[in-house]
Amino acid sequence: MRRIFLFICLLISFFAEAQKKRVPGRMINDPERLKALSILDSLGTITPSTFWPNIKPADFLQNLRRNLEQPYQMNTGRNTSFCAFGAVSFTCLKNEPVRYVQCMIDLYRKGEGFYRNIRLAPPEAVRLAAGKMIFQGDLDICPADQAWYLSLAHRFKGYLNFFNRNYQPGDENNMWAATNLAKFNRMLRKLCKYQLKSKGSDLIRPSVPKLPEFLQEKLAQGEVYLYLNNSVFRKKNHNRLQKWIPTHYVVLMEIYPGQNGNWVVKYWDGGYKTLKEVSVRSLKQITYGITWVSYNTTSDE
Length: 301
Known about the structure:
Elements: H1 2-19, H2 30-43, H3 57-69, H4 83-95, H5 97-110, E1 113-115, E2 118-120, H6 124-129, H7 143-155, H8 181-192, E3 197-200, H9 211-221, E4 222-228, E5 248-257, E6 263-269, E7 272-278, H10 280-286, E8 287-294
């Protein structure tokens, strides 16, 4: 009887945990976005942070406001390794802008912030770097984004970061900030509580006979993220690696038939929406990982 009782308790715990899983919305969460903007309005001004000495309060708040007003323009920089964090930020801003803003305000004021139960508390070396990045395009003038990406890169680690775990200036461009597929999926699960599914790996492409149709099907059901060898969808200068391994994450927005058997892919890539027409063969060659989250289940967590 005792074993049966324990089994029933475990079963109840399993289903209770399953109910806690969240799902993204089909559209930008406008009610929350307006609420997040009202939070910024109520702040007025804030005092300079002793934790982030190179970020001025006005620049920090202006950056947050821009992210809320134009959530699809959050930029990951020209040659950084922040693309995975950008893809995760895409869904955070789209679906949970209030949680994002509250976390960022605490991060600036206290040197640490919580996104759900995930504590972001970067060390001094990381905090001193935020606000000082140069030659990264739009990211140069977005100090709050620098703080957010650097904090995520410090908090989440995978095997690619094994030999470079402690930040030094310039590490945003190298393996310190790199993200393998398992780490990317873990970030989505931990930060957003998504019950996601994934195909592929860091070295072997997923076996999907009709890849474009498969992506169409998953995109109709939810959000889709692609882990790519960026030789075609290229925003970064990773020329030495791009022929051999995946190095890039994008958010799939649309995919539909083009001309001459090709397919048109519309994707979000670190602040920009881009269209590319590719052959089925090329699409299969560059796709190493597919992660998707369904809209179907609802939760209030």
